[in-house]
Amino acid sequence: MTHQRETIEETGARLARQVLGSDNEEMTDLRAQRGVAFDRLGELEQFSELKVYDGPEPAVISLTGDEARRCFDDQFFIVVVSEVHRTGQGPAVRVIAPAHMSIQSNDTDGHDLVIGSGPSTVFNPVPPFPIDVVPLLLDAEDDIKCWVSNYFSNDESVGFTGRFFEQMIQESDPYRLTPWDIAAVSTLSVDVPPAVSAKILLPGPTRDRINALVALLPPTTVSLTHASPVDVGDNSKAAELYSLLREFRGMGPTTVSKLLAAKRPALIPIRDSVVEDLLGAGQAWWRPMQLLADDERLRVLIDRVCERVPANVTYLRRLDVVLWSFGTHL
């Protein structure tokens, strides 16, 4: 059974949501002016029109009569997404407010929006991972369902120790690192070096600094798909904690990501070489993973293959197990 790639329009919509939900001052003002909170970005659809192009942004965009009439509404704006699959610099998203629109009648009784006729801001959202893995996952759905079931099985002959991860982190304090977190990470086939464990757990300035950052992480209820750049951006407390832990000898990206996932399993995606290779990942991880996790095709698949997964396993952890299981069987 062959599954279609995500359409240009679907990818463009997800890139647009990323920009509209950013902490850029212009986007913050745009949401505030329309009374839309960050966690209700879908409500912006009533104020906007989305135009998506796989190639370069056109100089002129054709509008229907209804679209042209909406341009006279002060609340209305147009989002233009171009170069959707461009590598390197990545896609571009332009947000055009009514005051910056130039509308002209055309020869077909329609209207044209002239791009560049007034000031508007172009954003470069984090591009998706190079490999669209979802069609491959959909084709392997039956196998993945079996692999996931085995992963969480209590049968010692097939179950993985990772099935204990959630049980252990539930015993920990969500606002500081504890021995339970060190033990939880070991169930995922990595170990925190003893010297680092001592710095994390024994009294002293290092422990205090680490736990001060843990305490400033977003609430445990915040998921990656609903996280803002304040939660997982380059200047977030999570990023600061990640950088601090990476300074310690023996604490690579995989170990640190699993330790942070122990604190915020719904928010921080685990990074390992199997999933990196599967997705063709580069340096960026959290934001592209956020874009992937928001893929509706993937959400539906995760629901189907994780029917027997314990309820305390977050969507993000389920996604990680699905990707890792598939990647290890290639």
Structural key phrases:
330 residues, alpha+beta, four-stranded mixed sheet, 16 helices
Topology:
Layout: H1 8-20, H2 25-33, E1 48-52, E2 60-63, H3 65-70, E3 77-82, E4 92-96, E5 103-105, E6 111-114, E7 121-123, H4 134-139, H5 141-151, H6 165-170, H7 179-186, H8 194-201, H9 205-215, H10 229-232, H11 237-246, H12 253-263, H13 273-279, H14 286-293, H15 296-305, H16 315-328
Parallel strand pairs: 1-3
Antiparallel strand pairs: 2-6, 3-4, 4-7, 5-6
What do you see in this structure?
This protein has helices at residues 8-20, 25-33, 65-70, 134-139, 141-151, 165-170, 179-186, 194-201, 205-215, 229-232, 237-246, 253-263, 273-279, 286-293, 296-305, 315-328, and strands at residues 48-52, 60-63, 77-82, 92-96, 103-105, 111-114, 121-123. It is of the alpha+beta class. The strands form two sheets. A four-stranded mixed β-sheet has the order 1-3-4-7, covered by helices on one side. A three-stranded antiparallel β-sheet has the order 2-6-5. Helix 7 (179-186) crosses helix 12 and helix 11 (237-246) packs across helix 12 (253-263). It starts with 7 loop residues before the first helix and ends with a helix.
